[in-house]
Amino acid sequence: MANTKRNIPKGARPSLFASSVLPLLIGFVVLLGIVVMTYLLAERSRTYFDKSMATRDQRTATVQLRNALLAAESSQRGFIYSGNEVYLAPFDTARSQSLRWLDALERTVGEEEDARPLVDRLRSLSTMLLSDMETMIELKRDRKDDEVVAMFRTNRGKALMDEANVFFSGLILAADDQLTAGIVEQRSNATWLRVVTVLGGLIIVVVVGYSTASVMRQTRDLAAAHAELAALNTGLEAKVAARTADLAQANEEIQRFAYIVTHDLRAPLVNIMGFTNELETNAKTLFSVIEHAAKTGALAEEMISNARFTAEQELPEAIHFIRSSTRKMDDLIKAILLLAREGRRLLRPETTDLKQAIAAAAASVQHQIQSGGGVINLDIDVTPVTIDKVALDQIVGNLLDNAVKYRSTSRPLVITIRARGAEANRFTLEIRDNGRGIAARDLDRIFDPFRRAGLQDQPGEGIGLAMVKALVIRLGGTIAVESVLDSGTIFTIALPKAPAS
Question: What are the strands of the beta sheet with 375-381, ordered from one edge?
């Protein structure tokens, strides 16, 4: 199976993007397109629906207004022809309905530029029609039939009603046309929705089918790769052991080289420091000569002034700079030697009572903590462990020294050391303080040698945490840090209860 897999040309296999990601991306785009189109078509349908409802209301108001005017006219004519008040019973109701439907028609038309003048004219015509009807009714009641006949003969009422009917017909036809157009648009929307849904569904089915085939093909490839990996892992432990031995030897050579180099560097450094002392002594002698020359007048005043300036200021300043630089270099060399020695030291695991060991380390800083009103709390609940006690003392001691050194000036120092058993025959050691804390940007570099974070107002070379991490790794453990600036820091160390070998 493995040989078959190797013989397949690289270009013949579709990439992960082409076989899995791309189909899913296409399906997502298609699905998104269906959702967007459905939303747009739904919004379009809602718009036409709202418009159709408004048109229907406008048509209803127009028809009802026409009916009310006809009812009022019929009631008025019946009274005039018969003189019987019974015929006037529907008149007041028809007149009120006419005015109400006129208001409704104006509301449905709104600010439409085409229909607004028609409605205004309809209001004028309706007002004149109703006014003429009321006038003729009053004349009939006063038995002035001649004046009633005269008004009939002017045909004013017929002309007004005919004109109103023209407007009624125009508004009704326009409303019918708009309703018909809305129905056509709704059918078009429904057709588009069906087309988009069917096409999108087909594309998604194709994409799902292709993706399923790709997943099955990749599953077979993974099974073949797993079998090949199992074959390759045969003898891997021996190769790892051999390479581990090579790495250990290379590491030992590097540590030996660092030790030799730093040891040899100290010799010229000591010489520089010795010559610096001689320069300082010679500078004093030179100053005495200058003072003697000034008293005897052996040299010009300007030369004496320049020489005195050199002897009093420039030479001491240069000597101070050389001395401080050599002192700093000496501290760095000592730190490197300390790391090199610690790396070469043979670990000697021994059964250790963790509570007693940590209590002894805490006792070494107890006086410094109590002098500032602080306190150190121990919460150790771990059975005896097998560990290199010197390394454990150095780990805990360095972390406690850091906590004391970088305490907050605004509150008493509180340190809590907590230890608990963990899974896989390990235990965790947590050292928590309420000191200055560490900025988030510095958390990744505090374990690097010679790297210091925050305000540099305490002596040190930045080697303590680097040594702590190196010792924890040598013991087969891990170390992590959590910190909040101006709140405190938590170091969490996970170590085996007994060495692996």
Answer: 375-381, 414-422, 426-433, 488-496, 478-484
- Gap between the Cα atoms of 149 and 158, Å rounded: 14
Rounded average pLDDT over 75-100: 85
Give dist(CA 254, CA 248) in Å, integer.
10
Q: What angle do CA 117, 120, 126 make, to 5 degrees?
A: 140
| Residues of the chain above pLDDT 70, percent | 75
What DSSP character marks residue 85? G
Amino acid identity of residue 436, one-letter, is: R
Distance between CA atoms of residues 198 and 191, nearest Å: 11
Q: What is the DSSP letter of 19?
A: I
Pairing of strands 414-422, 375-381: parallel
Of 338 and 85, the structure prediction assigns the larger pLDDT to 85
Longest dimension (CA), the chain: 158
Rg over alpha carbons for the chain, rounded to the nearest Å, is 51
Least confident residue range of 160-174, 215-229, 271-285, 371-385:
271-285
CB 482 within 8 A of CB 489: yes
How buried is 55 (Cβ within 10 angstroms: 0-12 exposed, 13-18 middle, 19+ buried)? buried
- pLDDT-based confidence at residue 472 (cuts at 50, 70, 90): very high
What kind and span of H or E run contains 361? helix 354-371
In the beta sheet, which residues pair with residue 375? 414
DSSP structural state of residue 313: I
Per-residue model confidence as pLDDT tens digits over 389-401: 988 998 999 999 9
- pTM for this structure? 0.41
Q: What are phi and psi of 405, to 5 degrees?
A: -65, -40
Q: Give me the count of residues in the chain.
A: 501
C-alpha 477/C-alpha 471 separation (Å) is 9
Please write the tens of the pLDDT for every residue from 292-312.
Answer: 776 776 666 777 777 777 766
490 Cβ neighbours under 8 A, 6+ residues apart: 430, 431, 432, 481, 482, 483
